[in-house]
Sequence to fold (480 residues):
Amino acid sequence: MDQHSTPVFDGLLKYKADQHFSFHVPGHKDGLVFPEKATAIFRQLLSIDATEVAGLDELYHPAGILRDGEKLLSDYYGTRASYFLVNGSTAGNLIMVLAACRRGDAVFVARDSHKSIFNALKLAGVRPVFLSPAVDADTGLATGVDDSAWEAAIRRFPKPKALILTYPNYYGMAASAARTLIAKAHACGAAVLVDEAHGPHFRLGAPVPPSTLDMGADLVVHSAHKMLPAMTMGAFLHVNSNRVAKERVTSAREMMQTSSPSYPIMASLDLARYYLAHLSSGQLNEWITHRNQFVKGLQRLKKIKVMEAEPGQFLLDPFKITLELKTEETGFDFQKQLLAAGIYPEMADPHRVLFTLGLTGRIDYKTALGKIGACLFKFHQGRAYELKSSYVFPMWSTLECPYDELDRMERKKTDLDHAAGQIAAEHVIPYPPGIPIIVQGERITKVQIGAVKNWLTAGAAFQNESINQGKITIYRAGAL
Fold:
């Protein structure tokens, strides 16, 4: 197909030129009705913020510009079918699970999955079997499902309906074992669903890691807005085999997304695919050269360490740079200093700060490097506490009760110090990265409580008001 084409964006430009009177929603009337203080910024974008009027197609039953845009997307990624998502990769994860699984199915799930996966499991009413991640000894970070966890779980549950993986993780670590694990899942009849939110650019070739689409994954979600020039909430959903019926995917997509999809978001998805398709190897090499020079400068700063790939364990997305503190201060302390200097990192954790570079050569790395060095000036060399894994899980685990039983149980709050052995009635999630330390429905361990305290002490933000007050919501014992 002609990857120079941008049918969705071009269709909106035609709509803008042809329409003289708007007698339809939205109420801003192509930007004519809007607060004056914001008009200068919003007016141009609102002129193409259309609805599904004649000529602009319909997302869930496309026959025109959206059909053409999605066909181009599928052509670029080499899939059976690909779809635009306007509610983010969160919606994509919900759609994958609902399409591939039925109530009561045993489903293998990487324990370090994003919170949207856990919400999808509950919506689908499946029986999740959580698989522990392998942990990199040098960084303490999860690098993908531990092979021993798979082997232990498959002996107990020999016919899982699906395997759900995260690849790469938030830090850009792409597990080397992913290809083998996908093959093992297929061998036992399981569909493989991959949250590849941070890897929409993984078709570019080395030094960028490979995509799980090329490893045979059946359903894959890409968060286009994370690494590509797409608007926030823009994502892709790919059907890569016949293991999950396309009809189930499209039905779930219509249920889990808005009936009023954003045309600017969809046009930006069309343009993001166009942008990817026209990147030359020369451009990529130039960006990587500039990136590597920036990394060399960071490596000369004595108070931080730059994460590197570990051959045989994980590859590393070159457009993600993780800086580990070698100081008494935490990653959150470093983040505060960076923000004060006008440098906005992607996220921080107790030990690190993560930079997301993007596919561009327009970053002023020299100036940024000077400011980063200045931010570290007052930090104290040496670590106040031992570097440990942020997540410690059993080899495999399940919920204490099925989801429908949990919904009928009474809840109460208890002090975090008294929660060991109780069943959690809420997810406990530091955000970012959005990976639960404790999952609703599992029995809380002392190790998990220690991990929560470690994040709290370091200054992490939790999406739980009770946790920030030193409490956690649990189910009342025996109360149905």
The chain has a mean pLDDT of 94.
